[in-house]
C-alpha cells in the first residue's frame, strides 16, 4: 500500500507535537505527585533523618535489607533469614506491600 506524500509529511510533522504533549503530560503528573507528597508529608520530614512512619518501618527495613543481601548472594530476593523469626521463609508469599521497596533497594543499591 502506498502512502500519499501529503499524508506522510503531515504525520511526520505531527510526531514532534505528540512528543512535546507527552512530555508535558508526564511533567504535569510528576509535579502533581510531588505536590501531593509534600501535602501529605512535609518536606522537612522527608529530608530529615527520622523514619517517615513508625508503624512498620523496622519490619520493612529489615525485609528490604535481607532481600538485598539475598540478591547479592544468590540472585534472588527470597530465602531464609535466620535473623527474623528463626529462619522463617522470607519473600515468597507474605509482604506483598513491601515488594516495591525490596526491588527499589536492590536496583538502587547496584547503581550507587
- Overall pLDDT confidence: 78
Overall shape: extended
Query: Counting H and I runs of at least 4 residues, what is the number of helices?
Result: 4
Order of helices and strands: HHHEEH
State the major sheet.
2 strands, antiparallel
Please give the domain count.
2
Distance between the termini: 51 Å
Helix content: 55-70%
**Integer-rounded radius of gyration:** 23 Å
Helix/strand-derived category reads: mainly alpha
Number of strands: 2
Strand content: under 5%
Q: What topology, given as strand order, has the largest sheet?
A: 1-2
Uncertain runs: none
Descriptive notes:
There is one protein chain. The protein is mainly alpha-helical. The protein folds into two domains: 5-47; 57-111, no CATH class. Helix content is 64%, strand content 4%. The protein has four helices and two strands, in the order H-H-H-E-E-H. It has helices at residues 5-40, 43-47, 57-74, 99-111; strands at residues 79-80, 89-90. A two-stranded antiparallel ribbon has the order 1-2. Helix 3 crosses helix 4. The longest helix is centred in the N-terminal third of the chain and has 36 residues, at 5-40. The protein is extended. 11% of the residues are buried.
List the helices and strands and how they pair.
Layout: H1 5-40, H2 43-47, H3 57-74, E1 79-80, E2 89-90, H4 99-111
Antiparallel strand pairs: 1-2
Helix pairs in contact: 3-4
Amino acid at each position: 500500500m502506498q502512502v500519499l506524500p501529503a499524508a506522510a509529511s503531515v504525520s511526520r510533522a505531527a510526531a514532534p507535537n505528540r512528543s512535546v504533549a507527552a512530555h508535558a503530560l508526564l511533567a504535569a503528573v510528576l509535579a502533581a505527585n510531588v505536590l501531593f507528597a509534600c501535602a501529605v508529608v512535609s518536606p522537612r520530614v522527608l529530608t530529615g533523618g527520622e523514619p517517615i512512619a513508625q508503624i512498620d518501618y523496622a519490619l520493612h527495613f529489615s525485609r528490604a535489607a535481607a532481600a538485598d543481601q539475598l540478591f547479592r548472594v544468590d540472585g534472588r530476593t527470597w530465602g531464609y533469614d535466620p535473623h527474623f523469626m528463626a529462619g522463617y521463609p522470607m519473600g515468597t508469599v507474605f509482604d506483598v506491600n513491601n515488594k516495591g521497596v525490596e526491588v527499589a533497594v536492590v536496583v538502587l543499591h547496584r547503581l550507587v
